[in-house]
Amino acid sequence: MAESDIESALVVRRLKNDLSPSDYLNNFQRSSGQLRYLWNGHDVPSDLKTSFAVNWTPEYLYTCFECNYTVLNVNSAPQTTEKTIGLWDCDVVEIFIAPNPGDPNRYLEIEVSPLGEWVDVELHIEKRQRSSNWQWHSNVEAACAIDNANKIWRTAFRIPSENLFGASINEGQECLGNFYRCDGTEPARNYITWRPTMTPEPNFHVPERFGKFRFVDDFGD
Q1: Domains in the chain, ordered, with CATH?
Q2: Collapsing DSSP states into helix, strand and coil, what is residue 7?
Q3: Which residues contact residue 142 at a Cβ distance below 8 angstroms, ignoring those fewer than 6 apart?
Q4: Does this model's pTM top 0.85?
């Protein structure tokens, strides 16, 4: 893992038009990169390859994941009409966003499962203590697909920019964040990241390891 990989910004390209999550899911060729590392900086096993895309319009932030898997760990009775507390114990992908680059300890977390379940929360770390605001709502919309024959699951979701930033996204805007994936069950659970957190035990809540996102007006579709 090169330190330059940690320091470089992720270029987030604008879409020409807003898309539904299902339409975004069907145009995954805009891949932005891969989650190449486990939380500790080790390489991800080849059978758990995880690609992602992220784009924006003034009204929405779009994210898509494509996840190779061996066995799915999902809820037997999924529901998608409200937050699924404890979803992090299943297979999920996650995006963390710190809207203000000058205050990375205030950030937002959104998770989506292979079945379209979701959970979101606003977080604040102060004096090494983390507080959670479960009343915050991202208004995330998701579409998901499972390809059992090829052992790949995909999800695409969009989040209103107003819910993330309090305003529309603009060209040149920057924020901080990270992408994650949880796969499998303990004791063989995999904690996969874009920017490794490098903690002794798996922990995604490490704002000082967030990467920079830069929104550019270079159409990505």
Answers
A1: 3-150+157-216 (2.60.40.1190)
A2: helix
A3: 21, 80, 112, 116, 118, 155, 156, 157
A4: yes
Task: Determine the Cα–Cα distance for residues 212 and 82; give it in Å rounded to an integer.
Answer: 30
pLDDT tens, per residue, the chain with 221 residues: 444 444 578 999 999 999 999 999 998 655 688 999 999 999 999 999 999 999 999 999 999 999 999 999 999 999 999 999 999 999 999 999 999 999 999 999 999 999 999 999 999 999 989 999 999 999 999 999 999 999 999 999 999 999 999 999 999 999 999 999 999 999 999 999 999 999 999 999 999 999 999 999 976 55
Cβ atoms of residues 215 and 172 within 8 Å: yes
DSSP β-bridge partners for residue 182: 92, 191
CB 120 within 8 A of CB 136: yes
